[in-house]
Amino acid sequence: MSKPTAALVFLIAAFSYFLFSPSPKPHYYHTLFLSSPFSDNASIASNLRTLTRRPHVAGSLANAEAASHVLSSFASSSLKPRVAAYKVSLTYPVHRSLSLTPTESSKSIITFSLEQEHLGDNPYADEVTPTFHAYAKSGDVSGPAAYANYGRVEDFAGLNVSGAVVVARYGKIYRGDIVRNAYEAGAVGVVIYTDERDYGGEECFPESRWMPPSGVQVGTVYNGLGDPTTPGWASVDGCERLSEEEVELRGDSPGIPSLPISAADAEVILKSVVGGVGPGPGILNLSYVGKTVLAEIENVIGVIEGGEEPDRYVILGNHRDAWTFGAVDPNSGTAVLLEIAQRLDKLQKRGWKPRRTIILCNWDAEEYALIGSTEWVEDNRQMLASRAVAYLNADCAVSGPGFRASATPQLDDLIKQVAKEVRDPDNTTQSIYESWIRSNNSGVIGRLGSGASDYASFVQHVGVPVVDMLFGGGYPVYHSMYDDFTWMEKFGDPMFHRHVAIASVLGMVALRLADDEFLPFNYTSYASELKKSAEDLEKEMLGHSIDISPLIKSIQDLSTAAQEINIEKEEGVKGALRVRELNDRLMMAERALTDRDGLSGRTWYKHLVYGPSKYDDYGSKSFPGVDDAIDNAKRVKTKASWEHVQHEMWRVSRAIRHASLVLKEAQFFTKAHY
Ligand SMILES: *[C@@H]1O[C@H](CO)[C@@H](O)[C@H](O)[C@H]1NC(C)=O
Ligand SMILES: *[C@@H]1O[C@H](CO)[C@@H](O)[C@H](O)[C@H]1NC(C)=O
Ligand SMILES: *[C@@H]1O[C@H](CO)[C@@H](O)[C@H](O)[C@H]1NC(C)=O
Ligand SMILES: *[C@@H]1O[C@H](CO)[C@@H](O)[C@H](O)[C@H]1NC(C)=O
Ligand SMILES: *[C@@H]1O[C@H](CO)[C@@H](O)[C@H](O)[C@H]1NC(C)=O
Ligand SMILES: *[C@@H]1O[C@H](CO)[C@@H](O)[C@H](O)[C@H]1NC(C)=O
Question: Which first-to-last residue range defines the signal peptide (predicted)?
Answer without folding.
Answer: 1-21
